Amino acid sequence: MSLKREVLKSGLWYTIASISIRAVAIITTPIYTGMLSTGDYGLANTFNTWIELINIVTCLCVVYSIGRAKIDFKDKFDEYLSALQGLSSSFAFIVLILAFIFRNQLSEFMEYEVPLVMVMFVYLCFSPSVEYTLQKTRYEYKYKANILISVITCIGTIVFSISLMLLFNDRRYVGKILGTLLPTFIMGLLFYIRILLKGKRFYVKEYWSYALKIGLPMIPHAFALVVLAQVDRLMIKNYCGESDTGLYTFGYSFATLLAIFTNAIGQAWLPWFNDQLNEGKREEIKKINKKIVVLGSFITLAFIAVAPEALMVLSPSSPAYWVAKYVVPPVALGSFAQYLYTNYVNVELFYKRTPIIAVSSCFAALLNYVLNSIAIPRFGYTAAAYTTLISYIALMILHYLAVTFIIKEKVYDNVYLFAILFAIILIGLSFIVLYGDDIKIRLLRYGYAVIIFSIFAFIYRRDIMDLRRRLPSLSRSKGR
């Protein structure tokens, strides 16, 4: 099987698996909300937020080094992963000891029982091994193994969560928390042992130094992205109240479902991109990148076109939520800008220039905060959606400038990327005019969508025909 075909097949299956897993998560949400009080549901989800934040520090963000290490340590990749795991788990264990010493203070600060706090820090010692294994399978194009791990995690989470919520009947949030952690913890423990046995290295100075140089600057980047994603809701709650926060969150959650598709495409693209750039095949990268950008554009506009009806389906008995449709277009377009700027981030990671990534992300987070403080009090919660879009556009410009003038790499057709970004923004925002509730307006919107997609199909008909020719052979091919 050719490398291009392997990448296409991987992307197809990553997308299918991601959508399926997300669909299962959405379908099972009513089960959790039915078994948990609103307070318990909030406790369980806040616990996951704590894990996300603390994990940024305990894992040292060294996972970002794996893609480039696959090239630099090609013949010793298993050794590298083993030493990488040794680095992150050693630091996580030190944090675990500190957490044990200050367990009462942490419990009071985080507002969770001491046993749960300690469970969190033990979990963080081993859970990164799952991500290391996922990255390894991704860069080796072993998409079946990658998808299998994700499916097991998804199903295991559902089974354990429901079972343990029934077991901890008087404190069901504990069952939900433990049910979410157990599948990843068990697999993390198994993968920890497997990676160590296969690589047979725990400490290698060269590997540790290599990983830290790439990973440490990504810590502020990771925090900045969390701030960029979460600060909107906190500021809306402060300026507009809990009701508007709920509306914004509802619309935002649907719009960011777009990231399921774009992330799946990106996961398949990145290993191939690294290999091609390492071989100096920039024209090949540029050609394939255009096709990937077109695919992302089509999906983005589709999300925006169906948003009003999609929100009605997701909340059939609560019409008050439907007004959140006006949040969707700018947030979805922000996700599209993120999809585009990731192309430049991939170049920065390839050249191990992670401090640039961190500086750009921190600037975008600060810009988002400043714009929110100005716009939300004046224009209400929907303004936060537009400040998010502006922040992601700024982030794309910063990454473009860094790659072009600091790294001095010309991999993409930059004019094309920015032209399609602003074209999709204009088209996407134009749909808002047709977001009315009248049936005639709805039909007009779908008619408009058909015209737009028909124009897209005509302009990019060669790419569509090429994809159509490839799919039959892909379905008969044997993947690795």
Report on the structure:
By secondary structure, this protein is mainly α. It has 2 domains: 1-216, no CATH class; 217-480, no CATH class. Helix content is 83%, strand content 0%. The protein has helices at 3-35, 38-58, 66-72, 77-101, 103-110, 114-126, 128-139, 143-167, 172-199, 205-215, 218-239, 242-255, 258-278, 282-314, 328-350, 354-379, 383-406, 414-430, 439-459, 461-476. The longest helix has 33 residues, at 3-35. The termini are close together. 40% of the residues are buried.
Helix amount: over 70%
Q: Output mean pLDDT.
A: 85
What oligomerization state is this entry in? single chain
- Flag low-confidence runs: 470-480
Radius of gyration: 23 Å
Q: What is the first-to-last residue Cα distance?
A: 10 Å
Count of DSSP H/I helices? 20
Question: How is the biggest beta sheet arranged?
Answer: none
User: Shape, please?
Assistant: globular
Question: Which structural class best describes the helix and strand composition?
Answer: mainly alpha
Number of domains: 2
Secondary structure: number of strands = 0
- Give the topology string: H per helix, E per strand: HHHHHHHHHHHHHHHHHHHH
Q: Determine the strand fraction and express it as a percent band.
A: under 5%
